[in-house]
UniProtKB/TrEMBL annotation:
Name of the protein described by the UniProt record: Nitrate reductase molybdenum cofactor assembly chaperone
Record InterPro entries: DMSO/NO3_reduct_chaperone (IPR020945), NO3_reductase_chaperone_NarJ (IPR003765), TorD-like_sf (IPR036411)
Protein's UniProt keywords contain Cell membrane: no
Top-level lineage group: Bacteria
Record field: compositional bias (Basic and acidic residues): 1-11
PANTHER family named among the record's database cross-references: NITRATE REDUCTASE MOLYBDENUM COFACTOR ASSEMBLY CHAPERONE (PTHR43680), NITRATE REDUCTASE MOLYBDENUM COFACTOR ASSEMBLY CHAPERONE NARJ (PTHR43680:SF2)
Species assigned in the record: Streptomyces macrolidinus
Comp. bias (Pro residues): 232-254
Keyword Hydrolase applies: no
Record keywords: Nitrate assimilation
Region (Disordered): 1-23, 212-254
Amino acid sequence: MSPRPAPDRTRLRAAARRPARLTPEEAEERALLLRLCSLLLQYPDAELATARPVLTTTVEALAPSPSAEHLAAFTAWFTDQEPQALERHYVETFDLRRRSSLYLTYYLHGDTRRRGMALLALAQRYRASGWESAGGELPDHLPVVLEFAALAGHRTGEAPLRQHRRGLELIQHALTDADSPYRHVLSALLALLPPPTEADLAAVAELAAQGPPQEDVGLDPYGAGEFAPPGTFVPPHPAPPTLMPPLSPPEGPR
């Protein structure tokens, strides 16, 4: 009897990380979770602050899941804050700290020429799917990436999130270290993605210690903080939130 061939571990790992097929109901719930993450990670201007009761009601009506629990923890804090305090916390968290910047290609390519190419590829992916982002943000801004994921579907739409899994892990670690309630939104998102591999975790640890690749030419940085000397960067004014249709309050918990 011939010996059984050894399993192809590369294929096994790929199969474990491949998106599973979803029922229409699961796909709808997943899209809502992604859309909520997108909204909650946008700059908390007056419009978003006014929508807090609807957002909270929508989160309360979600089907039970780890992601829903994390979003409930965040909205409990989000709803209780004064608008100006929300704005200050957002700027301090995402605009003044590179380690928790929401521009995903920065973690993979740093301030190098390759980042410009990655931004172009991401914009082309959006156009190929028939989608154009509104709001004036770069295509790698996490709320924009999440909106695309919610609209384009599980396999195609979430591909950029899976590609930038390591950057998302680093953002979540930075938010946890800073004790920012926004850590709950990142935890809700990461709970939807395949679990990180050992290689992912090792790369995140190296990135946290050394920072992204650096180059003297290319795009200006998108934040100061741990990866750069203080005072070397003036953050841009936050762009207005990505335009999205208003959420309709659900009829009640399911």
